[in-house]
Design a protein that fits this description.
The chain has about 700 residues and is of the alpha+beta class. Helices cover about 20% and strands about 35% of the residues. It contains eleven helices and 46 strands. α5 runs parallel beside α6. The longest helix is centred in the last third of the chain and has 23 residues. It is globular and about 80 Å long. Bound molecules: zinc ion. Zinc ion binds next to loops.
Length: about 700
């Protein structure tokens, strides 16, 4: 269904089934007021013929975020080499339409021409049922008969009037093994009152996740994310003197050549409202991402998977070794075997190594399938060793990025011949080796490339290598082989964006660097991202529950050890812990995450909770890391104060019945017997059938 209207007032109220109640109104005063019953977004076409943001309203809390009267803003903000188009530029209204969009959403399309006639602007404003989030995107068409260059695009162009206020910003690091080391540290920063910017540098290989949250003294808050894998310079700043709160997110080094009649798509972004602390900011982001943006989970009842990955043996692998480990993995209850780096002739030559795998990989994949598991394969799509056929035959396909990934160099993904070759290579690998899952690894995925003999613009490397390169290849392959699942890994979680979530079912966070590091990464990454986007590689043998539970909370749990070297006791423990993980994974995946302590660190107790409001049930993984006391008083969050709960533990045999208020305010004592030890705490409604832990 498509509803088209001229520039006359229009009200459209559409129930889309369930409780969805969209109310999209174009008033006689040329205001657009878009509501889903929770968030209301208002824009206006002014007497000066400009398009401006008016207000965002939280209809449940009454919070209002108004435009700054002296400093207009608009989600339309870009510039060519000669002119800027923003809230101050006169436009001519062309047309509008409203359309329902999946999943249970509504889109307002607005089309304007720049008054001089240079650009046509397509603005899409989207609301979704039961999400306090506005998603939007801007597309630009060059109406002149000469080419132009887009030199600036702001994906987060918002100015609010907030007199006499004070704001904190939360940003979260990505992962980096290069100094300065980064491991998803959340950074809670008081915005200076003098309009100095606090930056969020996001995209492949950058410092931070592509997300920010701000909140004031009364816990009124905004969340924002942008759907772009390339480098971005985002920021937030506040000026107390005139109450101006400004957000922005600029595509770095943008230099987009747009032919006459050609178009440029500014990557979409979203802004949402919350009232509460950073856990609430994370929860609102995660629910929206999971419902609207993220690649669907493949099997609701068994995702995130428990996985074995061969990297514990490094590249010293072969068919019989993988088969023997697969036997053990299946006995332990694992659901997938991934053959990591080392299976192919070299990086960039994605044919099986004939010495290690004389029968190819298909019989091995068959065997893994016959054990009831999926078969995954490591693929560094953007890398090629200098002695690989592709690099020898086409040295001109390499990007100008100066690094090496195990000695390999980067392929330029936005060079058309590279794309054509890669798409057919990836499809061949999937078909020939019966691959269910691609562990996509490499150095960072958006390369710099300034070669002048490539099909992309040498001066537009950042946008081009992200959108025309990586995204175009993923799009093409996933269209051809939709059942294959992709895992995002680039030597660790270094491309944590809201575009990434559209193509991958999970992402690595911390790359195999130990128990404490694993917990630290999950702690930080579960502010912006759903818990399933935090997979963890466990390189240690599972010799105690401090180790296993340091990897237990979050997305796919990936054993990266030598299964054959496990002792009988370790095998028994692993089988038990895997059973436990399977029992709690749906709760971790679908729940609100509460960070009950400070970030994990030696000398602390750390605890992370998943609470499902619909089931009124919580699970907590709590870990003692070197503190002297063997007791910890654990205070929960999210529970109903008036309800009565049964509290039980994975290891401790005690059972408590406590009120929500007691659990929230006084806490429940948890026994953590060893200096490094861990416990799992289950909180269920007390009237549920009595159940002892396994
Ligand atoms: Zn290139």
């Amino acid at each position: 269904m498509k509803v088209v209207a001229a520039l006359t007032w229009l009200t459209l109220t559409l129930p889309i089934g369930g409780n969805a109640q969209f109310h999209f109104q174009h008033t006689p005063e040329n205001h657009w007021v878009l509501s889903n019953g929770w968030i209301e977004a208002e824009f206006q076409f002014t007497h000066q013929q400009t398009f401006e943001f008016v207000a965002l309203r939280n209809l449940r809390t009454g919070d209002i975020w108004k435009a700054h009267p002296a400093l207009a803003s608009s989600p339309v903000r870009f510039a060519s080499e000669s002119e800027a188009v923003d809230a101050y530029i006169p436009l001519r209204f062309v047309q509008e339409s409203i359309e329902p969009i999946p999943p249970r959403g509504m889109r307002q399309n607005l089309v304007f021409d720049e008054k001089g006639g240079g650009f046509r602007i397509f603005l899409a404003l989207e609301l979704y049922d039961n999400e306090p989030v506005l998603r939007y995107s801007v597309r630009i068409r060059n109406l002149l008969d000469q080419p132009r260059r887009i030199r600036m695009a702001d994906m987060l162009s918002w100015n609010f009037e907030e007199p006499g206020n004070e704001f904190r910003l939360l940003r979260v690091n990505q992962w980096s093994v290069l100094p300065p080391l980064r491991n998803f540290e959340p950074q809670d920063i008081l915005l200076p009152s003098d309009f100095r910017r606090e930056f969020v540098y996001s995209g492949a290989g950058a410092a931070h996740c592509a997300w920010l949250a701000v909140r004031d003294r009364r816990d009124r808050g905004l969340i924002a994310g942008w759907e772009f894998d390339g480098r971005t310079e985002a920021s937030a700043r506040y000026r107390a003197s005139d109450g101006r709160l400004q957000l922005s997110a600029f595509i770095e080094s943008l230099n987009r050549y747009v032919t006459p009649g050609g178009e440029f798509q500014v990557p979409p972004a979203f802004i949402g409202l919350f009232r509460g602390n950073w856990d609430e900011a994370g929860f609102r982001t995660q629910r929206f991402v999971e419902r609207v943006l993220a690649k669907r989970v493949p099997e609701e009842h068994k995702f995130p998977y428990v996985v074995w990955d061969s990297w514990g043996y490094q590249t010293d692998i072969n068919e019989s070794l993988i088969r023997r480990n697969a036997d053990i993995a299946a006995r332990l209850g694992m659901e997938m075997v991934i053959v990591d780096l080392g299976w192919s002739r070299t990086i960039g030559d994605w044919r099986h190594d004939p010495v290690k795998f004389p029968n190819g990989l298909a019989p091995l994949a068959d065997y893994v399938h016959s054990l009831g598991m999926k078969f995954g394969l490591h693929l560094a799509i953007a890398e090629a060793a200098l002695d690989s056929p592709v690099a020898r035959e086409h040295p001109e396909w390499l990007s100008t990025e100066p690094y090496s990934y195990f000695g390999a160099k980067g392929l330029c993904l936005s060079h058309k011949p590279v794309q054509q070759w890669l798409i057919q290579e990836i499809v061949r690998v999937i078909d020939e080796y019966q691959v269910d899952w691609i562990l996509q690894d490499g150095e960072h995925l958006v390369k710099r490339c300034t070669r002048r003999d490539h099909t992309h613009d040498p001066d537009d490397s950042n946008y081009s290598n992200a959108v025309d390169g990586l995204n175009a290849i993923l799009e093409a392959v996933q269209k051809l082989r939709p059942a294959v699942l992709w895992e995002n890994c680039a030597n660790g979680g270094s491309m944590m964006t809201f575009n990434m979530v559209k193509y991958y079912v999970t992402s690595i966070t911390n790359d195999a660097s130990g128990a404490l590091g694993s917990r630290q990464a999950v702690f930080g990454a579960t502010f912006p991202f759903p818990a399933r986007y935090t997979d963890r590689y466990m390189p240690e043998q599972p010799s105690n529950t401090y180790i296993t539970r340091s990897y237990m909370f979050g997305g796919p749990w990936i054993f990266m050890n030598k299964l054959e070297a496990m002792s009988p006791a370790e095998l028994a423990l692993a089988a038990n812990e895997i059973r436990t993980y399977k029992a709690i994974r749906p709760l971790m995946r679908d729940s609100k995450i509460f960070h009950l302590t400070d970030a994990p660190l030696e000398g602390r107790v750390d605890a992370i909770e998943a609470y499902s409001p619909s089931r009124d049930t919580a699970v907590v993984v709590i870990t003692r890391d070197g503190v002297p006391s063997n007791h910890h008083l654990l205070r929960l969050e999210g529970l109903n104060p008036e309800s009565s709960y049964r509290v039980r533990f994975q290891d401790d045999r005690r059972i408590y019945v406590m009120t929500g208020r007691q659990l929230l305010e006084d806490g429940v004592p948890v026994v953590l017997p060893a200096p490094q030890s861990s416990e799992i705490v289950y909180i269920e409604p007390a009237d549920l059938a009595f159940a002892l832990p396994d």
